[in-house]
Amino acid sequence: MLTEIRYNEVTPKGLVVTTKEGERKTIEADTIVLAAGATPDKKLYEEIKGKVSNTYLAGDCVEPRTIREAIADGYRIGLEI
Ligand SMILES: Cc1cc2nc3c(=O)[nH]c(=O)nc-3n(C[C@H](O)[C@H](O)[C@H](O)COP(=O)(O)OP(=O)(O)OC[C@H]3O[C@@H](n4cnc5c(N)ncnc54)[C@H](O)[C@@H]3O)c2cc1C
């Protein structure tokens, strides 16, 4: 796992990155999967808000975060109900 790297380019050999130490290197790969840039989908919430009493947003549909925040939201909303 590499942290704090900058992505430079995708080449036929793989992904070219710059490490936090400033070293430019290629991570060889056949396939690159992007798993970044998530955005919340609040469509269902907007549709039922006002039609269903006690409607709450919890977890990643508030904004993409971690399991910890999703559980905390559920706990807080459970207490409120
Ligand atoms: C690749 C990746 C890695 C991650 N790694 C970590 C990690 O290491 N540690 C960490 O803490 N967090 C991690 N997360 C974040 C974590 O997964 C989320 O914060 C957490 O799962 C949010 O929980 P949630 O219940 O809000 O949403 P989800 O876990 O996404 O659950 C939502 C559920 O609702 C269902 N659903 C959606 N629409 C409808 C509908 N219309 N009707 C019925 N069901 C529906 C979905 O199928 C899903 O099962 C990661 C996320 C990703 C994408």
Estimate percent helicity.
10-25%
Radius of gyration: 20 Å
What is the number of helices?
A: 2
Question: Would you identify the regions where 5 or more consecutive residues have pLDDT less than 50?
Answer: none
The tally of domains stands at: 2
What is the subunit arrangement here? single chain
- Strand fraction band? 15-25%
Helix and strand arrangement:
Elements: E1 6-11, E2 14-18, E3 24-28, H1 43-48, H2 67-80
Antiparallel strand pairs: 1-2, 2-3
The chain binds flavin-adenine dinucleotide.
In a few lines, what is going on in this structure?
With 81 residues, this protein is α+β, with helices and mostly antiparallel strands. It has helices at residues 43-48, 67-80, and strands at residues 6-11, 14-18, 24-28.
